[in-house]
Amino acid sequence: MPNLQENNVFKSKITNYMLSCWIFAALTGLMFGYDTGIIAGVTGTDDFLSKFFPDSYKKRVDELETNYCRDDDKFVGHFKSSIYLAAAVASFVAAKACSSLGRRPTLMMASVFFVSGSLFGAVAQTYPLLLFGRILYGIGIGFATQAAPLFLTEIAPLEHRGAVNILFQLFVTIGIFVGNLVNYGALIHPSGWRTSVGLAAVPGLVILVGSFIITESPLSLVERGKETEGKGALRKYRGVEEVDAEYEQLVTACEQVRRVKHPYLKLVGRSGIPPLFITIIIQVFQQYTGINAIMFYTSVLLQTMGFQSDMSLLSSLVIGLVNVCSNFMLIYVVDRVGRRKLLLVACVQMFISQVAIGVILTSHLLETGTLDKSLAAAVVVLVCTFVMAFAWSWGPMGWLIPTEIFPIETRTAGYSFAVSSNMLFTYVISQTFLSMMCSFKSLIFFFFSGWILVMGIFTAFLLPETKGVPVDLMGVCVWRQHPVWKRFFEDDGKSCETT
Q1: Mean pLDDT calculated for residue range 134-157
Q2: 3-class SS at 117?
Q3: HSE of 356 in the Cβ direction (CA atoms, 13 Å)?
Q4: Which parts of 51-119 are beta strand (E)?
Q5: What is d(CA 123, CA 137) in angstroms, rounded to the nearest whole number?
Q6: To 5 degrees, how large is the angle CA 184–CA 312–CA 45?
Q7: How many CA atoms lie less than 13 Å away from 216 in the CB half-sphere?
Q8: Beta partners for 66?
Q9: Which of 53, 97, 172, 298 has the fewest Cβ atoms nearer than 10 Å?
Q10: pLDDT per residue as tens digits for the range 372-388
């Protein structure tokens, strides 16, 4: 394949305004990550459980826990994971809002749901009101994860597209770290959990203010027939006046969009199958690396390995910091190295980490008792190496690749499947992990490592490289060049070399 990125670089400057728009949009990821960071701590407090789940609290007090069976309560699990079902359903509504209203109003609506959900959860005195707040927050996640990565991809210069999109995942990891930090300092008797839940309203308000400052994406404006505004927005984002060539490319791409009246029907057509399959399977793989099992239940896992409660929270902070730093590293390399190489290298690193953890726990951690301190420290290091690999590969790529891989006419519709399937399988993992650990014990790490092996094979043979490919050249320069997927596309005589 020719070097498309060099042939399609348009003039641009990274201005302060452009940077602020990137940050405001990416901040929605912080809301997603923050909930992941706090939820285990909140639902693990006696104050919270005794008020909203008295039977679960009694069960915790009365029953003896083993190393591999901790906090396995289905009612609490349903409450935790309700947010992901709400997000999965909301993503399809958000896709329609993105198409008909634009990315900016969709982000604005997400911020309103975030603030409302946080406040309802913080003041709730009854379980229905608490659950209502969690569902509102979940709708916000559905709207944000649908709109923000699309928006970031569309406003970024081609040569920085990967790095800009990854800002969303960077803020997810920052949110997880901040959530762990809040848990470490704010979960005090009797209402510390309310502080943890309510603090999410603060960044939600910042996002709401930011949604009035940012400009709609040029592609969205042109797509909805606002060509003059679209060209003005493009000039604003590029920081230069000479945008005619890029603008003409946008207009051509949007003409293709207008010719497709039913994008969801086109998605299930022959040429829609490869990107739709890859988008959904990437979300499945992202969850079955075991990452959310580790991030949701890090403190439980570390207590399993012999850490005291305070030490397990402190170790969670270390793991969260590794997560954030690894995302910073990816921003630097993603548009230089490409997507496939990073995913393949990460598969090797994650596989070794998971297998090593499984071997140590199988050999040395029984139903009761603790690990030797040096072995427990080794497990923490292995968890960090696993998280590091995920943070510069399958985590952010799960949001980046689906924004690149669809042709422009089905991108918004196709991306809604990315969001919904991600949330659905996050729900599945959050519902089943503790029960699986209780049943599989240390073998659960071999279960996840088996999935990682399959992921590596998939990446090697089925995943095309999308680095540096303009949105309107995805079909001719990616799909029709791929040895497996090219059979799904008709040859229209166009050549990638001459496009």
Answers
A1: 95
A2: helix
A3: 18
A4: none
A5: 14
A6: 55
A7: 23
A8: 69
A9: 53
A10: 878 878 888 888 899 99
What fold characterizes domain 4-214+260-488? Growth Hormone; Chain: A; (1.20.1250)
Rounded CA separation 358/352 (Å): 10
Note the pLDDT of residue 120. 96
Say how far apart CA 454 and CA 108 lie, in whole Å. 39
Dihedrals phi, psi of 315, to nearest 5 degrees: -65, -35
Phi, psi angles (nearest 5°) of residue 61: -70, -40
Helix (H, G, I), strand (E, B) or coil at 277: helix
| Cα distance between residue 219 and residue 333, in whole Å | 26
Q: Residue ranges per domain, the chain?
A: 4-214+260-488
Higher per-residue pLDDT: 363 or 496: 363
In degrees and rounded to multiples of 5, residue 69 shows phi and psi of -125, 95
β-pair partners for 69: 66
- Structure confidence at residue 174 as a pLDDT band (50, 70, 90): very high
What's the residue count for the chain? 499
Q: Which residues contact 65 (CB under 8 A, 6 or more apart)?
A: 71
Mean pLDDT highest for which of 111-115, 400-404, 434-438?
Answer: 111-115
DSSP structure class, residue 473: G
Poorest-confidence range of 77-91, 290-304, 405-419?
290-304
